[in-house]
From TrEMBL:
GO biological process: carbohydrate metabolic process
Pfam families: Glyco_hydro_77
Protein name: 4-alpha-glucanotransferase
Statement: the UniProt record of this protein carries the keyword Protein biosynthesis: no
PANTHER family referenced in this protein's UniProt entry, alphabetically: 4-ALPHA-GLUCANOTRANSFERASE DPE1, CHLOROPLASTIC/AMYLOPLASTIC, 4-ALPHA-GLUCANOTRANSFERASE DPE1, CHLOROPLASTIC_AMYLOPLASTIC
SUPFAM superfamilies assigned to the protein according to its UniProt record, in alphabetical order: (Trans)glycosidases
A GO MF label: 4-alpha-glucanotransferase activity
UniProt EC number: 2.4.1.25
Protein family: Belongs to the disproportionating enzyme family.
Species name: Acidilobus saccharovorans (strain DSM 16705 / JCM 18335 / VKM B-2471 / 345-15)
Assigned keywords, A-Z: Carbohydrate metabolism, Glycosyltransferase, Transferase
Gene3D superfamilies tied to this protein: Glycosidases (3.20.20.80)
Length: 491
């Protein structure tokens, strides 16, 4: 990747629109701010449709391919003549710095239905349906059925639907025809709006970094429509689920409970599902972060029904075989290995053989060990360095509320600081001056926000993914300082 820096801000966290950030004017304004601040990258989280049953996590989406309906901009629909000004004004405002997913979904869907009632299909629309039918038909039926069955996942549906009986599915397609056509329209609008945003980014010389979670939720169109590529039993329930083993941070490990892949079945199919996933991502992003990269070398699988991850086992991933095929089929997409957590030599070797950039997180550097791989003097060039990720506290939150006194002293001494009044900028400078090709900062760290602005706390539910930027005022004030630092360090 070209030497540069950028900001991490998810679409839902953008200001402007009522209830939740979207792909409208505010997203385009953010691109202009990135340019003014001298930034070359914008990193987002997965764009997948989310569900309250999964804490609205973008890493537990209902599809690996579809876009989130709440990100469709009502303002851009109005610009198309599909909504009226008074209909836009009818949206409740909500809290300015928190996403209200329930209200956002309810009111966005109401406006989307109105817009669809006025929509006149065009040649572009027909081409979109034809080009994306390989995933869109199953997904549109899935969400329509899920809505009909009151949000329950496919394991509780009638047997004919669970097993995808052709006659049964066709009957339900007829029964839910209007809802399916609405979903076609929603996805068309999402990808049209995203395409416009990406074109704007290209004009400004800004590259967008996306995110591909390694696993998909059992409650997803992907598992329902492709059961053969997952380790499922005859009852179509998972036989093994994902997680990570016990370690220093957790005596029982982490149990993620998503189905794991049947990599042998995928290999026999020449990894066609994964190739399509990467090809689809290449149409949306310039680069993608591969979440839980270590799982491609070896992954921890736990017998379904276990209460913890203790009784799991290591299983071989697809390794280089998958990625050599991906690189041949989708050569333009830059891959980034999220190589955090329990990393063994085989993971590092796979990353290096493929020539992929790895990740460095400055919050992990302060353990008293000069050889700590997260300390900048130990970096190579082919890395992306973060002050923190979406799973970390903000720098201010971490430094003043989580870091030990020893870690704070070590960090201050390393950076030559006498006080911590601008600790966020000190960490940004440390990342900027490193040899790592790319440095990325959550917007919260640029603004010096505290733990109230944290995006996600792993292992918890109920208050994640909700943080939202109130306005761009603080970023505009910080733009010049960020630009000057960027220039000083050749980014």
């Amino acid at each position: 990747m070209e030497r540069g820096s950028g900001l991490l801000l998810h679409i839902t966290s953008l200001p402007g629109s009522p209830l939740v950030g979207d792909l409208g004017p505010s997203a385009h304004e953010f691109l202009e701010i990135l340019r003014d601040a001298g930034q070359r990258y914008w990193q987002v989280l997965p764009l997948s449709p989310t569900a309250p049953e999964h804490d609205n996590s973008p890493y537990s989406g209902l599809s690996a391919f579809a876009g989130n309906p709440i990100m469709v901009s009502p303002q851009l629909l109005a610009n198309e003549g599909l909504l009226a000004a008074d209909e836009l004004a009818s949206l409740p405002r909500g809290e300015p710095n928190r996403v209200d997913y329930g209200l956002a979904y309810e009111h966005r869907m109401r406006l989307l239905r109105l817009a669809f009632s006025r929509f006149k299909p065009s040649g572009d629309y027909d081409r979109f349906l034809d080009r994306n039918s390989w995933w869109l038909e199953d997904y549109a039926l899935y969400v329509s059925l899920r809505e009909h069955f009151k949000g329950s996942d496919w394991s509780s549906w009638p047997e004919g639907l669970r097993r995808r009986d052709r006659g049964e599915m066709q009957a339900w397609r007829e029964k839910l025809k209007e809802r399916i056509e609405l979903e076609h329209f929603i996805q068309y609008e999402f990808f049209s709006q995203w395409s416009s945003l990406r074109a704007h980014a290209r004009r400004l010389g800004i590259r967008i970094i996306g995110d591909i979670p390694i696993y998909v939720s059992y409650d997803s169109a992907d598992v329902w429509s492709n059961p053969r590529i997952f380790k499922l039993g005859r009852d179509l329930r998972p036989t093994y689920v994902s997680g990570v083993p016990p370690d220093y941070f957790s005596r029982t490990g982490q149990l993620w409970n998503t189905p794991v892949y049947d990599w042998e079945s995928l290999r026999r199919e020449r990894y066609s599902w994964w190739i399509r996933r990467f090809a689809h991502a290449s149409e949306l992003f310039d680069a993608v972060r591969l979440d839980h990269f270590r799982g491609f070398a070896a992954y921890w699988e736990v017998p379904a029904g276990e209460k913890t991850a203790v009784n799991g086992r290591w299983a071989r991933g697809p390794g280089e075989d998958l990625f050599r095929r991906v690189m041949r089929e989708v050569p333009r997409l830059q891959l980034i290995a999220e190589d955090l957590g329990f990393i063994t030599p085989d993971v590092v070797q796979l990353r290096d053989r493929l020539g992929l950039p790895g990740l460095k997180v400055l919050q992990f550097a302060w353990d008293g060990n000069p050889g700590n791989p997260y300390k900048p003097h130990n970096y190579g060039r082919n890395f992306v360095v973060y002050t923190g990720t979406h799973d970390n506290n903000t720098i201010v939150g971490w430094f003043f509320h989580e870091a030990s006194p020893r870690a704070r002293r070590e960090a201050m001494n390393y950076m030559g600081l006498r006080d911590a009044r601008e600790i966020n900028w000190a960490f940004i400078r440390l990342a900027m001056m490193s040899v790592a090709d790319v440095s990325i900062f959550p917007v919260q760290d640029v603004l010096g926000l505290g733990p109230e602005a944290r995006m996600n706390t792993p292992g918890t539910v109920g208050n994640n993914w909700r943080w939202r930027l109130e306005s761009f005022d603080g970023l505009r004030r910080a733009a010049r300082r960020l630009r000057d630092m960027t220039r000083a360090y050749g980014r």
